[in-house]
From TrEMBL:
Originating species: Cephalopterus ornatus (Amazonian umbrellabird)
EC class: transferase
Substrates-to-products reaction catalysed: 1-octadecanoyl-2-(9Z,12Z-octadecadienoyl)-sn-glycero-3-phosphate + CTP + H(+) = 1-octadecanoyl-2-(9Z,12Z-octadecadienoyl)-sn-glycero-3-cytidine-5'-diphosphate + diphosphate; 1-hexadecanoyl-2-(5Z,8Z,11Z,14Z-eicosatetraenoyl)-sn-glycero-3-phosphate + CTP + H(+) = 1-hexadecanoyl-2-(5Z,8Z,11Z,14Z-eicosatetraenoyl)-sn-glycero-3-cytidine-5'-diphosphate + diphosphate; 1,2-di-(5Z,8Z,11Z,14Z)-eicosatetraenoyl-sn-glycero-3-phosphate + CTP + H(+) = 1,2-di-(5Z,8Z,11Z,14Z-eicosatetraenoyl)-sn-glycero-3-cytidine-5'-diphosphate + diphosphate; 1,2-di-(9Z,12Z-octadecadienoyl)-sn-glycero-3-phosphate + CTP + H(+) = 1,2-di-(9Z,12Z-octadecadienoyl)-sn-glycero-3-cytidine-5'-diphosphate + diphosphate
Protein's name in the database: Phosphatidate cytidylyltransferase
Family membership noted in the UniProt record: Belongs to the CDS family.
């Protein structure tokens, strides 16, 4: 519980002007949410203390969520993308609902409709870009899709502009400040939720391993930090999250790095996890079959002299991806939690316990994905910076859509370049 000043009754860090604005917006910003633990668990755990009851509730629901995670992975990329979109919509709903409750904005003209309209516009833009990028051949084959693809950005801008004009027309004199406040709230929510979920899908197309390992590392860090903190925690870590401890933070770090390294070793041996997710035009389905890249081929590495005497080995065989997994798991355990701290600060600002009560013992969907979104951005940037190179198949697809004279010009330019480098001549001699 957080204490408030009885004389001023303000939120933590709130100024006098903030209190006046809050009064203008309709009263107190305090919003209460509570977990709705199933009755069957309440009866089964009735003899335990609240501390251990919460431990068991969180543990049982965590196992259920992990099981669900494995099931959707088994069902394939399309189901994964659908789940990501459903999670995105639910997270958006939770954050927007907090804004409505805090600022009593249910009576604002058109605003609930406009919030969801902007969500639709942003999703149309991002998913349209994804479809054009990854389903290029299918799009070119269907006339309606080809037209939508050609003018996709113009259509997206026109849709957004329509919503913008609707917002301006909805402005009411007595609600100006509140309407602009909620307009900004909606757009920040879109930036945090929709953009990050779009990056998760892009990571998925690079290969299931780029989706599963980062998410698993965040889950592992969350679980192990909680376990170490529960049993050994003594030293508070950060005031934003009073229950977080240094013992949990450090224990979660080492556990996550080891877990990520071992999980990467197991998954790197399977093509279904390492191959990029591609669309097969012949079968109109996704395929994950390829020749594994060097990242997923065992290589021999020399062990540093300092460690040779400790482990007794001079070399070790491992996948190059395992080295990258150390960077991913390190981020998940050292920087990823700051997404959770950010969410904790947000909840403290508005005096709420959780974003919602969707999952007993865990809060809302956003409470479980606050670190995942930050992780998704890092993975996408990491792939673009250190992993991804030009994609020959996409270049060929784009080349085939050009006019014959443009294709001929590119062919002659490429031929001249290869002759200058001596490559084409050697191939003709062979």
């Amino acid at each position: 519980h957080w204490q408030e000043s009885e004389s001023e009754n303000r939120l933590d860090g709130e100024t006098a002007s903030d209190s006046e604005s809050r009064s203008e917006f309709g009263g107190s910003s305090t919003v209460q949410t509570s977990d709705d633990t199933p009755e069957v668990l309440n009866r089964a755990l009735s003899n335990l203390s609240s501390r251990w009851k919460n431990w068991w509730v969180r543990g049982i629901l965590t196992l259920a969520m992990i099981t669900f995670f494995f099931i959707i992975i088994y069902l394939g990329p399309m189901v994964l993308m659908t789940i990501v979109m459903c999670v995105q919509i639910k997270c958006f709903h939770e954050i927007i609902t907090i804004g409505y409750n805090v600022y009593h904005s249910y009576d604002l003209p058109w605003f609930r409709t406009l919030s969801w309209y902007f969500l639709l516009c942003v999703n149309y833009f991002f998913y349209g870009e994804t479809v054009t990028d990854y389903f290029f051949t299918l799009v070119q084959r269907e006339e309606p899709l080809r037209i939508l693809s050609k003018y996709h950005r113009f259509i997206s801008f026109a849709l957004y502009l329509t919503g913008f004009c609707m917002f301006v027309l909805s402005l009411v004199k007595k609600h100006y400040r509140l309407q602009f406040y909620m307009f900004g709230w909606t757009h920040v929510t879109l930036l945090i939720v929709v953009t990050q979920s779009h990056l998760i899908i892009h990571n998925l197309f690079e290969g299931m391993i780029w989706f599963i390992v980062p998410i698993s590392c965040v889950i592992c860090n969350d679980i192990m930090a909680y376990m170490f903190g529960f049993f050994f925690g003594r030293t508070p870590l950060i005031k934003l999250s009073p229950k977080k401890t240094w013992e949990g933070f450090i224990g979660g770090f080492f556990s996550t790095v080891l877990f990520g390294w071992l999980l990467s070793y197991v998954m790197s041996g399977y093509r279904c996890f390492t191959c990029p997710v591609e669309f097969n035009n012949d079968t109109n389905s996704f395929t994950v079959d390829c020749e594994p890249s060097e990242l997923f081929q065992l290589q021999e590495y020399n062990i540093p002299l300092v460690l040779q005497s400790v482990v007794g080995w001079k070399t070790v065989r491992m996948y190059p991806f395992q080295i990258h997994s150390i960077a991913l798991s390190t981020f998940a355990s050292l920087i990823g939690p700051f997404g959770g701290f950010f969410a904790s600060g947000f909840k403290r600002a508005f005096k709420i316990k959780d974003f919602a009560n969707t999952i007993p013992g865990h809060g809302g969907i956003m409470d479980r994905f606050d670190c995942q979104y930050l992780m998704a951005t890092f993975v996408n940037v990491y792939i673009a910076s250190f992993i991804r190179g030009p994609n020959p198949s996409k270049l060929i697809q784009q080349f085939l859509t050009l006019r014959p004279d443009q294709q001929l010009h590119i062919f002659n330019t490429l031929k001249a370049h290869l002759v200058d480098r001596g490559i084409l001549g050697s191939l003709e001699d062979a």
